[in-house]
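Sequence in, structure out.
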Amino acid sequence: MTGYRPPFPWIETLPGAAAVAHAGRQGWLDLGADAPPLLQGVLIGVGVLGPDGKQTPAFAQAWTDHRVDIMARAQFYCRAASDVAGGLGDLAANLPAFMDRAETFRLFRYETAQSTDPAALSETAQWVDYLEALARVESPVLAPLMPFARGDHVLEVGGNTGLMAAALAPAGVRVEVLDLPAVCALGQQRRPEVTFHAGDGREITGHPIREARFDGVLFKSVLHDWPEEDAERMLSQALSLLGDGGRIVICERDRPGPIALADPTMQGLANLVFAPFYRGASFYVDWMERHGMVVSVERLSLDMPFILLSGTQR
């Protein structure tokens, strides 16, 4: 999108993403071992390796600092490419059939994340790592735009491993995260300074969090996962958690137009898999207005258009 620079350009083509994903899984990028000639040629072509077969300085630094993010993105991009190439017709006209066969949707096994045993944590980490890779780029841009004040106490529903909570902390905003048990366990390992509450954001009846009151409830990149009736129930529950003058904040990718749908980057292809689920602002604005909230809408562009909505109790 306009002004957006992919953080890892080496994986923004299919040959590059596939080559990095495979070489990373084989350990060749860590060990400095020679890859097969064809694969080495692709890695040279996309700038991972120089003509001498050694990592280029730019990639070497990125790999040292962001290995997990690079691998999470590259592997997800390959899943998305396969799904779109073999199922674009179903993605456009028969979404249930697409979801049944898509590798991308098999990755997000929320039922497994209800457990915190080692196998569940390992499986859940695969999609948590991808979401964290996205959030590491998004949070520094979005956090300064969040309409919270110093001293506010906020609950982030579906906050993953707490990157947004950590990004808001320097501004004096205290954010707690409600997410599935395995996600919270991973978050506690990675960000022990954040408070996590294990639970299902679709149903908090009987959860201890129900007794708390917050200045704000934040939904970032989560409500599009669920049908409208589930999203409305989650918003109603959020409303019940607000103190006087509290606000609900929603940050989501906007309903994509032709430019976003035809984005030729691998991140654009990954976003295309989820394109039918992005609702646009009107659904959320209508719900907030029906519940007597004062609504503001801000639009911005990252890897695709985003909307930032705030609904404040009168």
